[in-house]
Amino acid sequence: MSIDAWLPRGLEVETGVALRETVEDALDWQIYATSKPGDRVLVARPGLTSRWVEAGLLPEGALRSLAFGRDSFGVIQSHQEHALTSIPCSRSPQSAPEALAFAASMKRTRSIVAEVPLHDAIYVERYTILLPSYSLSPAVGDDVLLGSYLSGGIQVSCRSTRRLAAILTWLPAGYLGKIIQAAGLEDETRPEEKAGDGIASATDAFALPGRPALEAFFREHVIDIVQQRDRYRALGIDSPSAMVLHGPPGCGKTFAVERLVEYLGWPIYQIASGTVGSPYIHETGRKVAELFAKALDHAPSVIVIDEMESFLADREQGVGGGGHRVEEVAEFLRRIPEAVKGGVLIIGMTNRVEMIDEAILRRGRFDHIVKVGMPTEKEVRSLLDSLVSLLPTDAGLQTASAAARLAGRPLSDAAFVVREAGRLAARAGKDRLDQEALEQALSLAPARDSADAARPRIGFA
Predict the structure, then answer these.
(1) Residue 223 gets which letter from DSSP?
(2) Per-position DSSP letters for 49-116, written without gaps between them
(3) Which CATH architecture does the domain made up of 377-448 adopt?
(4) Is the Cβ–Cβ distance between 418 and 384 less than 8 Å?
C-alpha cells in the first residue's frame, strides 16, 4: 500500500540529499528513503518533536527544522550504517552486534524516560535511542518489546529463553543473556529462565481474558502439571496430555494457544499446510516425522497442529483420496504417543472435528477434546476490560453496552473495536479513550453477516 507523503519527492534535506518515497509512517511521523542509497530521514510533526526535546531524548543538533509551505517539521537523518525504523520491526537483526546496539538503546532510553511505553517507538540507532510516539495503542512490557525485535515481530518475551533460542538461529550460543543484560532487563529475569528453562513459576499469573473456562482447563491440565512436575511424576504423570480444541472460526482457539505457549516459554513447532503439506507421495509423512523429531530434541516443547482435518481426516471416508493420506494418518498415530512421553505438548485445532479419524481422537493419543464456543456477553466484557486497562481512559468509560453488542461474535471483533476506538480518539486530538470513541468504533464494526457488512466499503456512494 502506498503512503500519502507529506513532502514531495526530490525535496532536498541537505546538500545533495533529496527525499524519495516514504517507507514507514504513523499519525505524527514518516520515514523517507533518500537519493543516497541506504540513508533514511525521519520527519515528525512539531507536537511530537517538542515532547522528545522536553524529555531530553535527543542530543543537541540531532533534530533540525524543515519548513514546507505553511507546515513545519522536525527532521532526523540516519546514514546507511545505522538503523532507522519503527517498532515493532518487520525483520529481525542479522547479527549479535545489531541486537546489542538495540538493547543498548533500550537501556539508555529507560535511563531518560522510565515509564513511557516504547512498543510504538522509532528506533534511531545513530543516537542510541528509542523515540516514543505516545500513541493510544495497547502497551507491552519491555521484555516483550525486546523479544519482538529479536524475533522479527513475534510477540514473545525475552525471558522465554528456550523459545527464543529456538527462533534465533542466527544468534551465537550464549549471546541472548548478554543482550538481555545490555538492555537492563537481567534483574527482572526469573532464576529458572536464567538457567535456560523458560518455565513460568507458580506465582506468575496466566490469564485468558474473555475465555475463563478455557483458562481454567489450561491451568488444571497443563500449567499445574508443569509447575508441580515432581508431585505429578510420583503419581505416574510425566507430562500434560495431548488435546484438541474445536469450534467455529473466530471462537478464540488460536488466541488461547498463543497465550499458553507464550506463558510456558517453550519452543513451538507448527504443523500446517504451509509447513509440512506436499503434493508428493511420502513427502508430507517425512516432514511430519522430522518435525516431531525436532520437538523431541528440544523438549519440553509444543507442537500445534492447525486445521488438523487437512492431515487427519477419517480414512474410512477417503477424504483427500489416495493411499498416501492413509500413510500420513498412520505417521501421526505412531508419533503422537512417543512425543507425549518425551515431554512434547501436542495441541490440535480444527473447525471440523467430525471429519477427524476416530483412531486419532481416541484416548491415548488425544486425551482431551475441548469444545470452544463463541464468547458470551460476560466473556466479551472481560476481554474489553482487559484491553482498555492497558490504555489511558476517561473516567466515565463503560464497556457493558459494547459487550452486549459484541456477544456471540469473534473475540477479534472486540480487539478491533478497542484498537479503532484508540485511533479515533487520537485522530480527534484526545489523549484518553472515551465513550464517544468507543461507540464510534462499534458503529464501524458491524457483524460480518449484517446488511451493513455486506455492503461494499470501497468507492463512492
Answers:
(1) I
(2) HHHHHHHT-S-TTS-EEEEETTEEEEEEEE-TTS-EEESS-SS--SSHHHHHHHHHHHHHHHHH-SSS
(3) Orthogonal Bundle (1.10)
(4) yes
Burial of 229 (C-beta count, 10 Å sphere; 0-12/13-18/19+): middle
CB 191 within 8 A of CB 174: no
Over residues 342-396, the pLDDT tens digits come to 999 999 999 888 888 788 888 888 889 999 888 888 888 888 988 888 888 888 8
Distance separating alpha carbons of residues 105 and 126, to the nearest angstrom: 10
Q: Do 351 and 245 contact (CB within 8 A), yes or no?
A: no
Q: Are strands 84-86 and 268-271 parallel, antiparallel or unpaired?
A: unpaired
Q: Which three cell numbers stand for residue 309?
A: 482435518
Question: Which class in CATH covers the domain with range 12-78?
Answer: alpha beta
pLDDT of residue 458: 42
Residue 209: count of CB within 10 angstroms of its CB:
20
CA dihedral angle for residue 343, residue 345, residue 346, residue 349, rounded to 10 degrees: 180
**Alpha helices (H) in 74-221, listed in sequence order:** 96-112, 142-151, 161-167, 175-182, 191-194, 212-218
Taking the domains of the chain in order of start, what are their residue ranges? Answer: 12-78, 84-194, 212-369, 377-448
Which residue carries 534535506 as its cell?
13
Cis peptide before 375 (omega within 30 of 0): no
In sequence order, which ranges of 219-297 are alpha helices (DSSP H)? 224-227, 229-234, 253-264, 273-276, 283-297
For 415-459, how does the pLDDT look when each residue is reduced to its tens digit (9 = 90+)? 889 989 988 998 888 888 999 999 999 988 776 554 444 444 444
